[in-house]
Amino acid sequence: MLLKLEKVNAYYGVLKILHDIDMDVREGELVVIMGPNGSGKSTLLKTIMGLLRTVTGSIKFQGEEIRGFPPYLIAELGISWAGETSPIFPDLTVLENLLVASYLPRARKKRKENLKIVFDLFPVLEERKNQQAGTLSGGQRKMLSIACCLMTSPKLLLVDEPSLGLAPKIADTIWSYLRKLRDMGLTLLVVEENIFKALNMADRGYVLEHGKIVREGDAKTLLKDERVVKAYIGK
Question: Contact 62/52 with Cβ under 8 angstroms?
């Protein structure tokens, strides 16, 4: 098991956001976390990444307990996070952002190899490698955010709301890239509000409501689940 969470609770101050979360991610899977706004989806990714400190329960990565580890150490172990707000340096060029992202010792050794993978996957980034990142379109910034994660040579990629704020056609393009990464052997855990889109791309999924997992299973089964369909897909 690549990632395993058991009885994970997370808090903002005294406010409990996540309630006894049990979930796992197997190597090579694309797993989605779905649910309405405010259900705790993004908080769950931040908890795994060590960005939220008030946490109880167990979070194991490759069998090692990582709860309480600082984010930089979690990154060194092989987990990378593409946040909802595209954490890039707007005043740097696309290429400079990618090179900065490969600062980890093990990533530096693969910098040239990873740069080729990134440019093969996102040719528009190679075309705009000398352009300031802040002048990119929303979809291109999302691509750059994911590409920067790939420059760290991750074993697990966490992606928060890849479709957020994007036109449907651009969102479909981003999801096709995520699926391609999964087909290349990368493991992904993705937060997505658009459940129909997510389940058509994923292997398995978890549905969160009020910080609790209320449904889980393989993607095809969840697409046929009456409660999921009625509540989130609207068919």
Answer: no
